[in-house]
């Protein structure tokens, strides 16, 4: 049984009664041409505040977890035709009333053109800025840059604003320096600050984990500031390890001064990690080198973190464990191949995981990023609809799903 309500010009739907709202007949509810909001009440530690309902089985979830990546073949429920049409057109949003500030979801919208701020203009941040400047004109209104080295910022402001196209009908976003108190005056903050990056020649096997301790302290400070500023935009994490830093930021932002989790800070879906895009690109690079593996470019998928625990699947329909493990290993160690040349591997990550994936996020296109799945930030293909985040769901073969499940558990055990 479903209940329908009208609350502040929004249509709400639930499968249990909310006595604080005035009920309305279904015939009145279905007249709306706007997004409808489906209410649930789940543990905020393991559930998103909101997401896009992309299929009927997501209507009244009782728990969230790694199974969100897998199509529920056994689900059977007959919904009213008008509600099915809403779901099909991505005009249905699930809202978790377990969050104190859940009502903010009802009035949130994404901008037509985004104001982007980048924190950290090192190797990755600088390259990412170039990508956004050149490719983001249709989706970005302006780009703010912030860092500790003011001379470096001046240099980037000079150089970036002297990039232009040789015609008059295409506008590139302007770049300007911002002060520390302006960092969260934007629609998307891109966190590119990194400390403790191992030098070339060091015998480090998993570079991203070396950076975790230092980067987690810095991102926690930013996350607490986001809470204080009541930041409503996207907190995009590009620094390594993105998945673990996302969870760190979520905890820090939602902890009060007494050390209690109150979930009044950043919603989990506001925080997104950008590291998996380059792992997919690296797998595609190696897959293209042989007819035996080239089908990955059309059939393959990537899951998990940017590093240890990465899961590359050569194909969903015709999954080969042998080929998948081969491509996983090649992609996972690709950064070491670059370091062996004497250079740090930051160009492809900054563009594939960073610029291109961020632009895809803003434009509502499918891309790889880490999003909140049952208390863990897990990388997968997803897109940001006007109704919220939609995670791609697939008919995953059991051997592949077991690999994904193992990675999911390991990520959850770390943070």
Layout: helices, strands, pairs:
Elements: E1 3-7, E2 10-14, H1 26-29, E3 36-40, E4 50-52, H2 81-88, E5 92-96, E6 114-119, H3 123-135, E7 140-146, H4 150-160, E8 174-177, E9 188-191, H5 207-210, H6 212-228, E10 234-237, H7 242-253, E11 271-273, H8 276-287, H9 296-299, E12 301-303, E13 311-313, H10 321-332, H11 334-339, H12 347-362, E14 367-373, E15 376-385, E16 388-391, H13 398-414
Parallel strand pairs: 2-3, 3-5, 6-7, 6-9, 7-8, 9-10, 10-11
Antiparallel strand pairs: 1-2, 4-5, 12-13, 14-15, 15-16
Helix pairs in contact: 3-12, 6-7, 8-10, 8-12
Which descriptors would you attach to this protein?
globular; L-2-Hydroxyisocaproate Dehydrogenase, Chain A, domain 2; single chain; 3 domains; Rossmann fold; alpha/beta; 33% helix
Q: What does this protein structure show overall?
A:
- The strands form 4 sheets. The chain has a 6-stranded parallel beta sheet with strand order 8-7-6-9-10-11, sandwiched between helices.
- Helices cover 33% and strands 19% of the residues.
- The chain has 13 helices and 16 strands.
- The two termini are 38 Å apart.
- The protein is α/β, with parallel strands linked by helices.
- The model has no long low-confidence stretch (mean pLDDT 95).
- It folds into 3 domains: 3-107, no CATH class; 114-273, 3-Layer(aba) Sandwich (Rossmann fold); 276-414, Lactate dehydrogenase/glycoside hydrolase, family 4, C-terminal (L-2-Hydroxyisocaproate Dehydrogenase, Chain A, domain 2, Alpha-Beta Complex).
- The longest helix is centred in the middle third of the chain and has 17 residues, at 212-228.
């Amino acid at each position: 049984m479903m209940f329908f309500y009208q609350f502040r010009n929004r249509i709400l739907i639930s499968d249990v009664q909310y006595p604080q709202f005035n009920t309305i007949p279904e015939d009145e509810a279905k007249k709306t041409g706007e997004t409808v909001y489906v209410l649930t009440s789940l543990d905020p530690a393991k559930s998103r505040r909101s997401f896009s309902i992309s299929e009927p089985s997501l209507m009244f979830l009782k728990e969230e977890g790694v199974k969100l990546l897998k199509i529920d073949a056994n689900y059977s429920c007959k919904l009213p035709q008008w509600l099915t049409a809403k779901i099909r057109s991505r005009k249905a949003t699930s809202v978790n009333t377990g969050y104190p500030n859940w009502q903010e979801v009802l009035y949130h919208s994404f901008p037509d053109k985004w104001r982007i701020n980048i924190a950290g203009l090192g190797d990755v941040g600088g390259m990412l800025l170039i990508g956004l400047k050149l490719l983001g004109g249709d989706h970005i209104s302006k780009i703010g840059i912030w860092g500790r080295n003011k001379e470096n910022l001046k240099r980037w402001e000079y150089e970036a604003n002297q990039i232009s196209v040789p015609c008059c009908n295409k506008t590139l976003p302007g770049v300007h320096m911002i002060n520390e108190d302006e960092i969260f005056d934007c629609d998307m903050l891109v966190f590119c600050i990194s400390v403790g990056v191992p030098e070339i020649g060091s015998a480090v096997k998993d570079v991203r984990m070396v950076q975790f301790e230092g980067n987690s302290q810095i991102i926690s400070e930013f996350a607490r500031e986001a809470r204080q500023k009541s930041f409503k935009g996207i907190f995009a994490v590009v620094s390594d390890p993105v998945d673990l830093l996302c969870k760190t930021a979520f905890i820090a932002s939602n902890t009060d001064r007494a050390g209690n989790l109150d979930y009044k800070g950043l919603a989990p879906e506001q925080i997104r990690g950008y590291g998996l895009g380059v792992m997919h690109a690296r797998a595609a690079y190696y897959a293209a080198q042989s007819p035996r593996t080239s089908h990955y470019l059309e059939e393959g998928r990537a899951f998990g973190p940017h590093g240890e625990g990465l899961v590359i699947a050569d194909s969903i329909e015709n999954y080969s464990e042998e080929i998948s493990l081969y491509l996983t290993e090649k992609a996972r160690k690709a950064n070491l191949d670059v370091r062996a040349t004497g250079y740090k591997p930051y160009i492809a990550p900054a563009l594939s995981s960073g610029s291109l994936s961020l632009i895809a996020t803003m434009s509502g296109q499918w891309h790889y990023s880490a999003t909140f799945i049952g208390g863990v930030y897990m990388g997968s293909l997803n897109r940001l609809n006007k109704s919220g985040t939609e995670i791609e769901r697939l008919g995953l073969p059991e051997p592949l799903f077991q690999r994904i499940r193992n990675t999911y558990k390991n990520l959850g055990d770390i943070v």
